[in-house]
């Protein structure tokens, strides 16, 4: 069995993951080095990559802050009833089961230019849908559960003993958090951050619906890849994709590393 | 400084901010879609859903997701088993690679399939010579779904295999059972809950997949148009109510699956 199964496993990985990766890595060079450089230094490509970078930064910051706080409230907060906690806990997972396109649609439906809220913001000169804020909102929605799902189990596991000891000894809420809780949940948070970065870097469906995909305005790296393919400009698409792949593989390595660190603590 | 931070108002402020953020970001949009789909009344909803193209796209999505999930159950169980039981060169690398589809942008996943199997590619030409059409037809959609949902079942089974008590297996061997018999009678029943919850997650992810599929499917209405791409098309052609109506069918199904997964996991934890 062993002799059959190991090669079969290798075959699955080769066909499904390794060969496609190699293909992307080499396909970008099809038009030579100049072709690759041209593909990623096009003004629209530079703009799209910057847009993606901005979204990743804003989304990761917001999600980390609110994700950690929500996890603490959901695990430790005595001011929430247990039934309410259970309900909130199951709502956290909802974005996982929502198709990204539907996630984008939701934001268009609530904040689009034809809705009351959207029209109000538009009248004060703050465009949400088909602009940067909407794209951030869409990505926030999609990535929301990642941080909470990483931090909550760690909080549950470490228990309250050490925190209680700290406050008995007179430490204030903040001191307890920074000196006791934070060092214990740190690796869980870092893992959550890596997952959030990876997901927001690659978000496509939700952003496509919300952004309108206007070149040099609301186009992100993934939606540029999509547009290039639709325009039969596969080599250019490949160049941008190569950058995304490089980031994803780097993130995967960080993921493995932080998973190990998380296991140690 | 500490005196200011200890003031009760702070924790109230934080609590309300976090809860408000949570509700506005997650709960409100979902309620929005449900209300929108009925905004023009019950009849309009029925009409949008029973549109033959909408209906076909939903049936196609269900069918292809089911095929992709079944494929993943087989290869996922095998990969998890091999990675867990055998020690061989490259095992740790393969184990890290499992998560690649999670880390990779789905649009890039679609592009990969297009480059490998598309027109003018080696495999694409072979398949065309044999009369098999892959890209822009159903097989490409299934491949995209298998790629995207690859990690789910493996990651659901691995922890169970690690905790598995070897003594039952050994007892079965001592009683003269063959390897195959041991796997199906002793090991498989234990990992079955993991396979099931992984499969349900994979299924709901396949139902929702957009990025990888939209690039390779060709999106011919009634033939290779899956539900999420149909919804995208409705949004683009300015029919938000129709998009919302199809959306809530998919959403309700996904929520049902999520609930089932939670039930299965809760029962396992209770044991």
UniProtKB/TrEMBL annotation, chain A:
Q: Which residues cross the membrane?
A: 51-75, 87-112, 124-148, 189-212, 232-255
Point out the signal peptide segment: none
Where does this protein come from, organism-wise?
Paenibacillus selenitireducens
The segment(s) forming the ABC transmembrane type-1 domain are 49-253
| Oligomer and partners | The complex is composed of two ATP-binding proteins (CysA), two transmembrane proteins (CysT and CysW) and a solute-binding protein (CysP).
| Membrane topology note | Multi-pass membrane protein
Annotated localization: Membrane
Q: Which keywords annotate this record?
A: Membrane, Sulfate transport, Transmembrane, Transmembrane helix, Transport
Check the record and name the InterPro entries matching this protein: MetI-like, MetI-like_sf, Sulph_transpt2
- Entry GO MF terms: ABC-type sulfate transporter activity
The entry's function note states: Part of the ABC transporter complex CysAWTP (TC 3.A.1.6.1) involved in sulfate/thiosulfate import. Probably responsible for the translocation of the substrate across the membrane.
Its cellular-component GO annotations read: plasma membrane
- Which named protein is this? Sulfate ABC transporter
UniProtKB/TrEMBL annotation, chain B:
What are the transmembrane regions?
20-46, 58-82, 102-128, 181-203, 210-231, 243-261
Q: Which UniProt keywords apply?
A: Cell membrane, Membrane, Molybdenum, Sulfate transport, Transmembrane, Transmembrane helix, Transport
- Can you supply one Gene Ontology CC term for this chain's record? plasma membrane
User: Which molecular function terms from Gene Ontology are attached?
Assistant: ABC-type sulfate transporter activity; molybdate ion transmembrane transporter activity
Q: Which residues form the ABC transmembrane type-1 domain?
A: 58-261
Subcellular location, record wording: Cell membrane; Membrane
Report whether Membrane shows up as a keyword of the record: yes
Q: Does the keyword Transmembrane helix apply?
A: yes
Q: Which domain of life is it from?
A: Bacteria
**Per the similarity annotation, which family is this?**
Belongs to the binding-protein-dependent transport system permease family. CysTW subfamily.
What role does it play?
Part of the ABC transporter complex CysAWTP (TC 3.A.1.6.1) involved in sulfate/thiosulfate import. Probably responsible for the translocation of the substrate across the membrane. Part of the binding-protein-dependent transport system for molybdenum; probably responsible for the translocation of the substrate across the membrane.
Q: What is this protein called?
A: Molybdenum transport system permease
């Amino acid at each position: 069995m062993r002799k059959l199964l190991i090669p079969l496993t290798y075959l699955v990985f080769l066909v499904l993951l390794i060969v496609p990766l190699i293909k992307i890595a080499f396909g970008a060079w099809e038009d030579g080095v100049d072709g690759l450089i041209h593909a990623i230094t096009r003004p629209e490509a530079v703009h799209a990559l910057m847009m993606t970078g901005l979204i990743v930064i804003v989304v990761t910051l917001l999600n980390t802050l609110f994700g950690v706080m929500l996890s603490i409230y959901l695990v430790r907060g005595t001011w929430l009833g247990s039934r309410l906690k259970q309900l909130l806990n199951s709502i956290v997972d909802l974005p996982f089961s929502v198709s990204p396109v539907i996630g984008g649609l939701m934001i268009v439906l609530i904040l689009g230019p034809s809705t009351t809220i959207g029209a109000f913001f538009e009248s004060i000169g703050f465009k949400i849908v088909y602009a940067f804020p909407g794209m951030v909102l869409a990505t926030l929605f999609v990535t929301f559960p990642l941080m909470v799902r990483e931090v909550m189990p760690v909080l549950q596991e470490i228990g309250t003993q050490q925190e209680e000891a700290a406050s008995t000894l007179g430490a204030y809420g903040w001191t307890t958090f920074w000196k006791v809780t934070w060092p214990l949940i740190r690796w869980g948070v870092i893992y959550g951050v890596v997952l959030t970065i990876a997901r927001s870097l690659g978000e496509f469906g939700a952003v496509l619906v919300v952004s309108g995909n206007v070149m040099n305005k609301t186009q992100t790296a993934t939606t540029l890849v999509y547009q290039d393919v639709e325009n039969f400009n596969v080599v250019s698409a490949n160049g941008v994709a190569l950058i995304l792949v490089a980031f994803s593989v780097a993130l995967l390595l960080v993921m493995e590393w932080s998973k190990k660190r998380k296991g140690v603590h | 400084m500490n005196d200011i931070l200890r003031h009760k108002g702070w924790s109230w402020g934080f609590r309300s901010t976090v809860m408000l953020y949570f509700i506005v970001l997650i709960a409100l949009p979902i309620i929005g879609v449900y209300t929108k789909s009925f905004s023009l009344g019950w009849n309009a909803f029925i009409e949008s859903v029973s549109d033959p193209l909408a209906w076909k796209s939903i049936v196609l999505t269900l069918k292809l997701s089911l095929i992709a999930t079944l494929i993943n159950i087989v290869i996922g169980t095998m990969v998890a088993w091999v990675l867990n039981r055998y020690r061989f060169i490259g095992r740790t690398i393969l184990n890290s690679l499992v998560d690649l589809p999670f880390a990779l942008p789905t649009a890039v996943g679609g592009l990969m399939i297009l480059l490998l199997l598309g027109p003018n590619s080696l495999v694409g030409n072979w398949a065309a010579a044999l009369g098999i059409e892959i890209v822009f037809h159903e097989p490409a959609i299934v491949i995209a779904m298998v790629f995207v949902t690859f990690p789910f079942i493996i990651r659901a089974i691995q922890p169970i295999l690690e905790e598995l008590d070897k003594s039952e297996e050994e007892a079965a061997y001592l009683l003269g059972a063959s390897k195959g018999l041991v796997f199906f009678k002793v090991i498989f029943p234990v990992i079955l809950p993991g396979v099931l919850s992984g499969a349900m997650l994979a299924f709901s992810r396949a139902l929702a997949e957009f990025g990888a599929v939209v690039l390779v499917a060709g999106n011919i209405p009634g033939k290779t148009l899956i539900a999420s791409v149909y919804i995208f098309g409705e949004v683009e052609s300015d029919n938000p109510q129709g998009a919302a109506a199809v959306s809530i069918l998919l959403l309700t199904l996904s929520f049902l699956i999520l609930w089932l997964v939670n039930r299965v996991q809760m029962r396992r934890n209770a044991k």
